[in-house]
Amino acid sequence: MNKLVFISLWLITSFSSYGQASDSLSLAKIDSIVVAKVDSVHTLDSAQYAQQAVEKKKVDLKTPPQVTELISLPNLFWSLIFIIVGYFVIKFTSRILEIFAERSTKYRITIKSVIPVIKILGWVVVIFLIVVGIYQPPASTVLAFSASIGVAVGFASQDILKNIFGGIVILFDRPFNSGDKIQVGDTYGEVVEIGLRSTRIVTPDDNLVTIPNGEIMNSSVSNANAGEANCQVVAEIYLPINADTVHVRALAIQAAQVSKYVFLNKPIVVVFSNEHKERQSIIKMKIKAYVLDIRDEFKFKSEMTEIVIKKLLEEGILTKD
Questions:
Q1: What is the distance between the alpha carbons of residues 223 and 294, in angstroms, rounded to a whole number?
Q2: Cβ 225 vs Cβ 294: under 8 Å
Q3: Per residue in 256-273, pLDDT tens?
Q4: Does residue 19 form part of some domain?
Q5: Which domain holds residue 257?
Q6: If exposure means fewest CB atoms within 10 Å of the residue's CB, which of 70, 147, 269, 288 is most exposed?
Q7: Are residues 231 and 181 in contact, defined by beta-carbon separation less than 8 angstroms?
Q8: Is residue 290 in a domain?
Q9: Vertex 228 angle, CA 116 and 234, to 5°
């Protein structure tokens, strides 16, 4: 009897513990299902929000902004500030480079050749900051505006565009640099500025000549020094037909060597040719020597001519008559 009671109590206890375990497992399963559902709802909401943002962005790109949104007083104010600051920064940088260039004969032409590039890059950066940083127009608006402006400007200012294109070609092709002595047509002098539209040259008579870049592109350009600080100087002297050319050559070379402007690292050459003037046969002598600084070209030419003529008069090869 006691055994039957014991077995009955054991069965009742087992069934009750099994029921409690089953209830715990069911509750845990229900909780996990609820959490999974909530996560899926959150994920679905995030995906829908991202899709709506993309659709809104597409609509914004397709729909150009109103003119009043782009051209407003704050935008105009900050654009003006950027232009003024950019102008003074570019001007100050160019001036500092010019000062350093004038202090160094060796690096003068190299430094001056960098100034036009810095000016162009500086204005490109200013325009980029204004467009992208202040106005921030959509890509479709930029393309449409650029196309319209390009067509209008192309018809209205073909010569200006030709000169600008010529200026860009000069900056990259470098047939000459700022500081070079060049000849374009009948104009000879030192290049003082290479702009987008024109190039400015100072002649030996101290005249400032402005030549459009389009005209330079269509003309032959003679460069006397090709980026170097020295250049060749030619002095011409006429001699009688019976002059001793060997002795005269020695005198001319010696006279050129004592000049304070001569560049002795390059040779001094004297050549003779026969010419006829006023029904007489004469000898034309050319003294070719290099000047140390291209800005002393005409001083060197004048000094060399004076010294040689003085020597020839002392030797009796030339007469005052």
A1: 12
A2: yes
A3: 888 889 998 999 999 999
A4: no
A5: 231-314
A6: 147
A7: yes
A8: yes
A9: 125
